[in-house]
Amino acid sequence: PLILSSALVTTTTDSPSWPEVSKLAATGYRDLTRLASQHPRMNRDICTTNRENIIAWIDEFIKELSRFRQLIADDSEEEIEQAFIQARQARQRWVDEHAKTD
């Protein structure tokens, strides 16, 4: 989440359209980018301490982003919707399991 949060902030704020787009960014953007506001030295230490695992997860995220990109490029409406359904269900399972342990 830390890397994704930081990458999202960097990608969006470096865009020439950011001044206009930033007006549309709301609580979802704020929530997704919260981790990017942590102390840079702490973030560096997290990355260097967990280097191998973080690299492996970055590779997995790249694969998933590429899959979404291809679905969107192919205009595969049904498959795009199914990808979001699967993600929603996976998140709900995690929420339900997490609630059991609280």
Automatic annotation (TrEMBL):
One of its GO terms (molecular function) is NAD+ binding. The keyword Oxidoreductase applies. InterPro entries: 6-PGluconate_DH-like_C_sf (IPR008927), PDH_C (IPR046825), Preph/Arog_dehydrog (IPR050812), Prephen_DH (IPR003099). Keywords: Oxidoreductase. Residues 1-102 form the Prephenate/arogenate dehydrogenase domain. Gene3D superfamilies: 6-phosphogluconate dehydrogenase C-terminal like domain. PROSITE patterns: PDH_ADH. Pfam families: PDH_C. GO terms for biological process: tyrosine biosynthetic process. The keyword Isomerase does not apply. This is Prephenate/arogenate dehydrogenase domain-containing protein. It comes from marine sediment metagenome.
